[in-house]
Amino acid sequence: MVSGFAWLLVFQLAGEVMVRGLQLPVPGPVPGPVMGMLLLLLALIWRGGPSDNLRSAGQGLLGNLSLLFVPAGVGIMVHGHRIADEWLALVVALILSTLLSMAVTALVMRACRGRPQQPPAPAPEQP
Q1: Quick one: which of 32, 54, 74, 82 has the most CB atoms within 10 Å?
Q2: Distance (Å, whole) CA 54 – CA 36
Q3: Given this model, what pLDDT does residue 115 score?
């Protein structure tokens, strides 16, 4: 499992080096790990799948994923008074952003699917 974590960190470091060294325009607040995950994906495709060490490291991370929600829960508890003061704006923003993301997703899916194929018209009968 330790070697699996080491490989994850190596790919994250490689992503950081690539983004900062080549000044690549990778989106997101943390572009290094995004590039590292892309490199890891390419390596896994090239290799044909993860090794047992990498698989056990990933399962260990997924098993403890709920711990990553603790800071968000603490933030909600600490700033509860602000949430109570601005609840209407938060609810409106959540509803509108959800509807907007659903609409954009539907439009992207429609564009990716393309137009449905029309069956060819039957050929006219010859006398």
Answers
A1: 54
A2: 15
A3: 66
The 10s digit of each residue's pLDDT in 46-66 is 888 788 888 888 888 888 888
Structure tokens at 79: 């700033």
Top mean-pLDDT range of 57-66, 83-92, 116-125: 83-92
Mean pLDDT computed over 81-92: 92
Cα–Cα distance measured from residue 63 to residue 59, given in angstroms and rounded to the nearest whole number: 6
Any idea which residue has 């070697």 for tokens?
3
Distance CA 24, CA 32 (A): 10
Provide the CA 50 distance to its chain's centre, in angstroms.
19
Amino acid at 47: R
Burial 25-62 (b: 16+ CB within 10 A, else e): ebeeeebbbbbbeebbeeeeeeeeebeeebebbeeeee
Q: Any idea where the domains of the chain sit in the sequence?
A: 1-63, 69-114
DSSP secondary structure of 7-54: HHHHHHHHHHHHHHHHT----SS-HHHHHHHHHHHHHHHHHTS--HHH
